[in-house]
Amino acid sequence: KKQVLYNRYYERFAEFRIACKEFFAELDLYAPQLRTLLAENFQIIGN
Questions:
Q1: At a CB cut-off of 8 Å and minimum separation 6, what does 10 contact?
Q2: Is the Cβ–Cβ distance between 30 and 36 less than 8 Å?
Q3: Which of 12, 19, 28, 40 is the most exposed place for a label (fewest CB within 10 A)?
Q4: What pLDDT does residue 4 have?
Q5: Cut 0.85: pTM above it
């Protein structure tokens, strides 16, 4: 979110969409930053 939205204004939705696609196309560049945001702290909740 920070890489695509932070302090940026997209006049058209198409521009925003391109920025999102570029982010996901270069996802490996952001992998170290993304790893710090993810936690393996999942809980299984039964029925």
A1: 16, 19
A2: no
A3: 40
A4: 61
A5: no
DSSP the chain: -HHHHTT---SSHHHHHHHHHHHHHTHHHHHHHHHHH----------
Residue 40: both structure tokens together: 């393996």
Angle between helix 27-37 and 13-25 (nearest 10) = 80
> Are 20 and 4 within 8 A, CB to CB?
yes
What are the domain boundaries of the chain? 2-37
* Under 8 Å between Cβ of 19 and 10: yes
The reported pLDDT for the residue numbered 1 is 53
For residue range 4-36, what is the model confidence (pLDDT) as tens digits?
Answer: 666 788 899 999 899 889 888 888 887 887 777
